[in-house]
Amino acid sequence: MPDRNVKARRMVADQLAPRGITDTHVLRAMESVPREEFVAPGQREDAYADHPLPIGAGQTISQPYIVAMMLQAAEIAPSDRVLEIGAGSGYAAAVASRIAASVCAVERIGELARAATGVLTRLGYDNVEIRHDDGTRGWPDGGSFDAILVAAAGPDIPAPLLAQLAPGGRLVMPVGPIGAPQRLVRIRRTAQGDQREDMGAVVFVPLIGAAGYADDDAPPR
Predict the structure, then answer these.
(1) Which of 100, 163, 165, 197 is the most interior residue, by most CB within 10 Å?
(2) Which entry of 62, 79, 102, 144 is annotated as an active-site residue?
(3) The whole model's pTM is what?
(4) What are the per-10-residue average pLDDT scores of the chain (221 residues)?
(5) Is 79 assigned a catalytic role?
């Protein structure tokens, strides 16, 4: 079996670069993070495959391209503070942490938050913090963030997240109905006001929480 570095390089060369991922920070970070550490044990062989994989609790880790696309859209700089909503296994937070100064990530499912914290600690990703909470509230005591990424689709962008976006910051989130094509939206905070960009069609799991969809709206696991 090819070693991890070979698989990671192939992922970047075959899945990411041909699809328009050009940010060198993102490409290097995607190559450096051991994706097999963030999937279920039985899925490690397919960790770098071009599709989502189960991580437990009825959730999945997004395919590598989706992670890279959202990170590139967020235009993360090395000095940035990043907030991620929907930490899952912690993989996207780990990749973002190889670019940004610090990453705060919120996960509403306790078992996933605990597992992600354990993996990140074991791997030495000491600039990432995971919190078990309602992600639609953001990180209320964390000040403002230069980039906010939301890995689930809501009916619209939650007001608490907009309130936590720093001047000049970027927020990337899918918006739309459950189980149907949604639109990936980027909000850029400028001196002239928030600029909203449509970045294309996507399909994500629903964003559950006080400022998102109700838990009863989500499809059964």
Answers:
(1) 100
(2) 62
(3) 0.95
(4) 81 97 98 96 94 91 97 98 98 98 98 98 98 98 97 97 98 94 96 96 94 81 53
(5) no
